[in-house]
């Protein structure tokens, strides 16, 4: 297939943002009828490369050829007209409009100055048929599952006769069957000769669907490979650029730590803690140096419990004791004063201050605790920032870079640094590894187990059960706003927890 | 490829390890056009009357057009100073004009009602009373916004509307003329050969610059302005910060009000500080601080305020017909605002950094600003 | 705002009351024939002059025992139109008002005409082509004021060779600003020695007058005379002149219009040289007009306020009794 002419050929692409060299002389090509996966840790430059191709970012150096011609686009609309369509992670569709309207939004067939509804439905139906998607074009988009919405987004992308289709993390919110459905569609499009760029954090999926891989690391090209010619372990190695042994090492280490845990008086204990419409009254306790995993589906009450423990939401009932003394945490500020830190799952809205520097973001909670008048001396700020940047491996290692210019994984590390800077006794981490890559994930997990060894209590919330099981000494399972189980983590299996989440059979 | 004057590329250079100062350079680069406008206005004046920039000693104090600009600009600088911090928290304070009117009226009514308007004690008492009154008014704004969560534009509109009424009540609808030598100093007098109002404004400006930099106030204000929710979760007392900026804004406006009334030795409840809120907001925006809150630039505000004042003085001194004065002012403001718009700046950056468009180019502001 | 709301509510209430009265077949109106009721809509309370004007009118009507319904338009035409409509609904006997602006009055004035209520304009005119819409316009003639200022200047500078004049204009576009500029220019037109070297608006305020004068003093070294469209701007100019190390009234002569108390004080102190009066005391004349109209008599279409001019001596004499 290498003899074929590439449809997209990007050569020597460089892009810089203030304080960050996002891409440095990267080459990338795509062939018709091929699925190409862009691989790399967060911050490797995947999104930037895609945005360069779709005209969102102008490039500082290099050239982009589309079907042999220089690509001259000044924005996503332009690139779409040139035949490059993109479906983003978050579906940017209007759930209150019909499927047909969503597919043809902005390109509605017109007649007599009005919209030609009949033709619109027919055209939409034809595209849906092409995707073997059996839904009524007139139905409301919002009435369909997220997976179907995702496919509608693809249908919308295809309506413009896309030669190149970019799928950015399309599977992150889909279940197994839905992924299969999506892959069936991708395979069909591949046969039609569409070049598909597939970005995903799930290695299994990449190995299932991709023909070719391009690996980026820190804005530079590592290499381009045929999927069948590269082993997974090699790929991960190339992506994170360090020895894969750290990953396995972590596993044994934490498991060992479990055995050492002793049941002393809990650091924090809650009795009958509840909040109307949020969680039903429950008991919760965590000992010093203990990692408690909170498992449960979205909306099961896991985040809600975390918000109450960290003073953000006020409980209606129950009592909270910290080291045996009754405390009332009415605000996040009060909880922070008691050295309880909560790292929100919503990194963008409730986490980073994107227009401030890495340094400002790291010292923020510590500074807020000291009050506005007693500024942390600049030298101390620099020390703090530098030590966390190196300890957590924040990239770029520039304390004065704006956090908005960092990748998701690095933003997450900055947030961790912010909470660690106040030396918390209890650290509540809500989905700290969501949307970040293997390497960063491993680093954060290792950090958590180290912190616990040093005596910090950690509440760990994650949708990934394997992760929860690997890290936690104890697992609290939530379902329908209730605590359904509280298990010591010795030989608990994913299957057991899954059953609890699904049915709560034990209680 | 990279030219030194292109801040974006300069920053991106891998050699730029000390990016801190360079980030500042980028911030300052937003001030290029307002600064150019300021210089252009001054040059226009010099062309019209060559001795425009000359400053001579008159009765032991400095005298000249530049001094006039600084002195008459002082109230705008003060009001804009408070406004900058308010806007940085994503807020706006429409009530400053009313506070200007109230403080002048209040101080002069106290001085006028006293037995000895020329007594320093009376004047200091009146000034203190005015500032305390303003503190209360600012606290009222702060209370509505920080505690009751009313939108700043609505909350301050209340005082904007009611404030002039309060000032009219104080002056009983008259222009209060009170001749008091010590009071006259604030807006019309001289210290060390310089107009006192310039020294007062400069001192307050320096105080704010130092206070926001040497304490964590500046960072916390920006933090609250950029992401209030995340700031709250990080333990920042946003309420305290917001309350403080509105109170401070009112105090700044009050000092401006004292200056304006002192300058004409009269309190004019109707026209004192009329539209000054708009001038102040304009000064802040010209200075490169976004109305969406977040990062702010005090230096920018200072330049913005003087652009506005110099524009007014220019209109008078180059003899623009009164009928077209407003149009002239609008044209200058539009020119500056357009030139410093992200899109325009990106265009200039491209012109400078690229000899020929070898690659497609898209709006740069997406990468830098949003 | 409350005031407007109150008015609107009163209006609404009265509409229903009038409705009832009409149903009863009584066409004579709510006001009754013997009891005279006048509705007056003031521009606002934007200056000392205006406040004096309001007080004088209220006082004169109280003294004459005539009921006066007073409303303050706060500088907004829409408020004024609302007030006039409410007066029409209340069926007052005469409506008087000082228009906020010159144009846009035809509709509401026609409504008054249809309702048979005579309208008197005070202080400011309207630009309606149909002059049957109002009975009379009582107020100063701003052109004459300008001419009087000009006449004094001609006399004062009779022996001079060249006279450099700077003008501090009122709010751009306002009738007094336009007319005072016009009258003054007409008066000095015959003599070439007068040159208006700079003219700029000071918005009728002291701060405006001071800032403009400061700039004038820097860009024009040889100013002989300041003509200010009102006392306040003149007072501002005095401060600017003093700051420049010159003596107002001596080095630079000043002539202004209005004759409010602060201006008269400056005139008495010799800092202003001459003031043309623009009297806010319209009350007595307005009462006369209203009673004449009510008794079925007719009045002149244009009645000029009784006004004078003041020199320093006259100012010293008049000052103790000056109320505004």
Automatic annotation (TrEMBL), chain A:
PROSITE patterns: ABC_TRANSPORTER_1 (PS00211), ABC_TRANSPORTER_2 (PS50893). GO terms for cellular component: plasma membrane. Keywords: ATP-binding, Cell membrane, Membrane, Nucleotide-binding, Repeat, Translocase, Transport. Residues 8-243, 252-505 form the ABC transporter domain. The keyword Ion transport does not apply. InterPro entries: AAA+_ATPase, ABC_carbohydrate_import_ATPase, ABC_transporter-like_ATP-bd, ABC_transporter-like_CS, P-loop_NTPase. CDD domains: ABC_Carb_Monos_I, ABC_Carb_Monos_II. It is a peripheral membrane protein. Gene3D superfamilies: P-loop containing nucleotide triphosphate hydrolases. GO terms for molecular function: ATP binding; ATP hydrolysis activity. It is found in: Cell membrane. This is Monosaccharide ABC transporter ATP-binding protein (CUT2 family). The lineage of its organism: Bacteria, Bacillati, Actinomycetota, Actinomycetes, Micrococcales.
Automatic annotation (TrEMBL), chain B:
Keywords: Cell membrane, Membrane, Transmembrane, Transmembrane helix. It holds the Pfam family BPD_transp_2. It is found in: Cell membrane. It is a multi-pass membrane protein. The keyword Secreted does not apply. GO terms for cellular component: plasma membrane. InterPro entries: ABC_transp_permease (IPR001851). The chain crosses the membrane at residues 31-49, 69-87, 94-113, 119-137, 144-170, 190-211, 240-260, 272-291, 298-318, 324-342. The keyword Cell membrane applies. GO terms for molecular function: transmembrane transporter activity. PANTHER family: ABC TRANSPORTER PERMEASE PROTEIN YPHD-RELATED-RELATED, GALACTOFURANOSE TRANSPORTER PERMEASE PROTEIN YTFT. This is Monosaccharide ABC transporter membrane protein (CUT2 family). It comes from Glaciihabitans tibetensis.
TrEMBL record, chain C:
It is found in: Cell envelope. GO terms for molecular function: carbohydrate binding. The keyword Membrane does not apply. Residues 1-21 form the signal peptide. The keyword Signal applies. Pfam families: Peripla_BP_4. Residues 38-296 form the Periplasmic binding protein domain. GO terms for cellular component: cell envelope. Keywords: Signal. PANTHER family: D-ALLOSE-BINDING PERIPLASMIC PROTEIN-RELATED, GALACTOFURANOSE-BINDING PROTEIN YTFQ. Belongs to the bacterial solute-binding protein 2 family. This is Monosaccharide ABC transporter substrate-binding protein (CUT2 family). It comes from Glaciihabitans tibetensis.
């Amino acid at each position: 297939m290498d003899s074929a002419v590439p449809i997209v050929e990007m050569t020597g692409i460089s892009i810089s943002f203030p304080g960050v060299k996002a891409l440095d002389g990267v080459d990338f090509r795509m062939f018709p009828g091929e699925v190409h996966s862009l691989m790399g840790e967060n911050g490797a430059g995947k999104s930037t490369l895609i945005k360069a191709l779709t005209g969102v970012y102008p490039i500082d150096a290099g050239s982009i050829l589309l079907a042999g011609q220089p690509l001259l686009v000044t924005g996503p609309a332009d690139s779409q007209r040139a035949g490059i369509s993109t479906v983003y992670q978050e579906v940017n569709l209007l759930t209150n409009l019909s499927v047909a309207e969503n597919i043809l939004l902005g390109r509605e067939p017109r007649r007599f100055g009005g919209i030609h509804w009949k033709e619109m439905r027919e055209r939409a139906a034809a595209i849906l048929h092409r995707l073997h998607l059996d839904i009524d074009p007139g139905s409301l988009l919002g009435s369909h599952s997220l997976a179907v919405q995702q496919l509608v987004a693809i249908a919308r992308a295809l309506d413009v006769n896309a030669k190149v289709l970019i799928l950015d993390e399309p599977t992150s919110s889909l279940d197994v069957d839905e992924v299969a459905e999506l892959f069936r569609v991708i395979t069909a499009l591949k046969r039609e000769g569409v070049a598909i760029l597939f970005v995903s954090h799930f290695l299994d999926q990449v190995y299932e669907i991709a023909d070719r891989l391009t690996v980026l690391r820190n804005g530079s090209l590592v290499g381009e490979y045929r999927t069948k010619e590269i082993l997974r372990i090699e790929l991960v190695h190339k992506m994170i650029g360090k020895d894969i042994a750290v990953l396995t090492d972590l596993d044994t280490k934490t498991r060992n730590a479990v055995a050492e845990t002793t049941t002393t008086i809990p650091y924090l204990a809650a009795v009958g803690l509840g909040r109307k419409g949020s969680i039903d009254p429950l008991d919760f306790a965590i000992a010093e140096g203990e990692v408690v995993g909170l498992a449960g589906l979205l909306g099961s009450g896991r985040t809600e419990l975390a918000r109450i423990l960290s003073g953000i939401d006020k409980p209606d009932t129950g009592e909270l004791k910290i080291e045996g003394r009754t405390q009332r945490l009415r605000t996040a500020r009060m909880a922070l004063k008691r050295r309880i830190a909560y790292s929100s799952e919503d990194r963008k809205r409730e986490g980073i201050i994107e227009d401030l520097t890495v340094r400002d973001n790291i010292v923020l909670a510590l500074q807020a605790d000291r009050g506005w008048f007693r500024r942390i001396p600049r030298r101390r700020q620099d020390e703090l920032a530098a030590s966390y940047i190196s300890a957590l491996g924040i990239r770029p290692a520039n304390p004065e870079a704006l956090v908005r210019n960092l990748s998701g994984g690095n933003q997450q590390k900055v947030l961790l640094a912010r909470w660690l800077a106040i030396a918390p006794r209890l650290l509540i981490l809500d989905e700290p590894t969501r949307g970040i890559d293997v390497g960063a994930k491993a680093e954060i997990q290792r950090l958590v187990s180290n912190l616990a060894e040093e005596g910090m209590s950690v509440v760990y919330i994650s949708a990934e059960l394997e992760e929860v099981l690997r890290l936690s000494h104890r697992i609290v399972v939530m379902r329908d706003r209730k605590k359904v189980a509280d298990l010591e983590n010795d030989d608990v299996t994913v299957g057991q927890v899954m059953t609890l989440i699904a049915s709560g059979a034990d209680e | 490829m990279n030219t030194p004057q292109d801040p974006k590329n300069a920053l991106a250079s891998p050699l730029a390890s000390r990016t801190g100062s360079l980030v500042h350079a980028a911030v300052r680069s937003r001030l290029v056009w307002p600064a150019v406008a300021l210089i252009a206005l001054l040059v226009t004046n010099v062309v019209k009357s060559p001795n425009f920039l000359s400053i001579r000693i008159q009765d032991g104090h400095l005298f000249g057009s530049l001094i006039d600009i600084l002195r008459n600009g002082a109230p705008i600088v003060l009001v804009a100073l408070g406004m900058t911090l308010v806007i940085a928290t994503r807020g706006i304070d429409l009530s400053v004009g009313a506070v200007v009117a109230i403080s002048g009226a209040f101080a002069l009514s106290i001085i006028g009602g006293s037995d000895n308007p020329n007594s320093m004690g009376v004047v200091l008492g009146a000034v203190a009373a005015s500032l305390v009154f303003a503190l209360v008014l600012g606290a009222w704004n702060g209370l509505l916004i920080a505690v009751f969560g009313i939108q700043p534009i609505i909350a301050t509109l209340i005082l904007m509307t009611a404030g002039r009424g309060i000032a009219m009540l104080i002056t009983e609808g008259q222009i209060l003329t009170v001749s008091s030598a010590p009071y006259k100093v604030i807006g019309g007098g001289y210290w060390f050969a310089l107009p006192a109002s310039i020294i007062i404004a400069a001192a307050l400006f320096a105080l704010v610059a130092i206070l926001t930099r040497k304490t964590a106030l500046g960072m916390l204000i920006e933090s609250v302005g950029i992401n209030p929710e995340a700031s709250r979760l990080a333990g920042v007392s946003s309420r305290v910060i917001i309350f403080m900026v509105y109170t401070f804004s009112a105090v700044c406006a009050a000092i401006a009000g004292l200056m304006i009334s002192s300058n004409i030795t009269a309190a004019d409840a109707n026209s004192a500080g009329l539209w000054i809120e708009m001038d102040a907001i304009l000064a802040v925006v010209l200075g490169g601080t976004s109305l969406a809150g977040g990062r702010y630039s005090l230096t920018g505000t200072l330049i913005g305020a003087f652009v506005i004042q110099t524009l007014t003085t220019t209109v008078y001194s180059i003899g623009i017909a009164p009928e077209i004065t407003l149009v002239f002012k609008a044209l200058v403001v539009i020119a500056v605002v357009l030139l410093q718009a992200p899109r325009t700046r990106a265009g200039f950056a491209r012109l400078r950094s690229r000899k020929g468009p070898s690659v497609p180019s898209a709006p740069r502001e997406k990468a830098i600003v949003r | 705002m409350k005031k407007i709301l109150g008015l609107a509510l009163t209006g609404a209430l009265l509409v229903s009351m009038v409705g009832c009265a009409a149903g009863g077949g009584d066409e004579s109106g709510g006001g009754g024939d013997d009891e005279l009721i006048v509705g007056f809509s003031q521009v606002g309370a934007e200056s000392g002059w205006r406040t004096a004007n309001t007080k004088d009118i209220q006082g004169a009507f109280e003294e004459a025992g005539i009921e006066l319904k007073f409303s303050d338009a706060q500088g907004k035409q829409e408020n004024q139109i609302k007030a006039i409509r409410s007066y029409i609904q209340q069926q007052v006997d005469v409506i008087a008002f000082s228009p906020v602006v010159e144009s846009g009055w035809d509709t509401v004035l026609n409504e008054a005409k249809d309702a048979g209520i005579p309208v008197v304009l005070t202080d400011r005119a309207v630009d309606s082509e149909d002059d049957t819409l109002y009975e009379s316009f009582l107020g100063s003639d701003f052109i004459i004021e300008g001419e009087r200022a000009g006449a004094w200047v001609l006399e004062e500078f009779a022996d001079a060779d060249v006279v450099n004049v700077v003008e501090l204009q009122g709010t751009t576009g306002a009738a007094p600003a336009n007319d005072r500029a016009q009258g003054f220019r007409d008066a000095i037109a015959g003599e070439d020695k007068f040159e208006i070297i700079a003219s700029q608006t000071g918005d009728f305020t002291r701060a405006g007058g001071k800032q403009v004068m400061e700039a004038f003093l820097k860009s024009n070294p040889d100013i002989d005379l300041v003509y200010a469209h009102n006392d306040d701007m003149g007072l501002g100019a005095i401060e600017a002149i003093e700051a420049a190390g010159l003596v107002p009234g001596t080095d630079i002569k000043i002539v202004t219009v209005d004759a409010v108390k602060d201006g008269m004080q400056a005139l008495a102190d010799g800092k202003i040289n001459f003031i043309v009066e623009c009297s806010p005391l319209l009350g007595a004349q307005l009462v006369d007009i209203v009673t004449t109209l009510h008794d079925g008599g007719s009045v002149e279409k244009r009645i000029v306020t009784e006004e004078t001019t003041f020199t320093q001596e006259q100012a010293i004499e008049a000052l103790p009794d000056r109320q505004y």
